[in-house]
Design brief:
The chain is mostly helical. It contains 4 helices and no strands.
Length: 105
């Protein structure tokens, strides 16, 4: 493998690791978060927002990557995910949490 191929595989692995870590953490802490924020009626929206935005954003992001290059779009996507994670962590109510999860998607 060339150096670029190894770097590409490493970047994909980091992205997969972040996604798996996110899923593990969210599934584990969500009952506690729901208890603190109160919003059992909107519990499913926290997961649905993420899962609905992801397939919608995929072709859009793919087109942007074709136009602007993969690296800036990948870095922008990771930045959006981090901003969404911070927003989710600082959420004061369920609406903020749901919107932050949508941004993560």
């Amino acid at each position: 493998m060339t150096r670029q191929q190894v770097a590409g595989v490493a970047v994909v692995m980091v992205g997969s690791f972040v996604a798996a870590l996110d899923a593990s953490i969210v599934a584990t802490v969500m009952p506690t978060v729901i208890g603190e924020l109160g919003g059992l009626d909107r519990y499913a929206l926290v997961f649905s927002a993420y899962l609905l935005v992801s397939p919608i954003a995929t072709p859009i992001v793919g087109r942007l990557a074709d136009i602007h290059g993969r690296t800036p779009v990948y870095v922008g996507g990771m930045a959006a995910f981090v901003v969404g994670s911070v927003g989710a962590g600082l959420s004061g109510d369920m609406t903020q949490l749901i919107l932050s999860r949508a941004l993560q998607g």
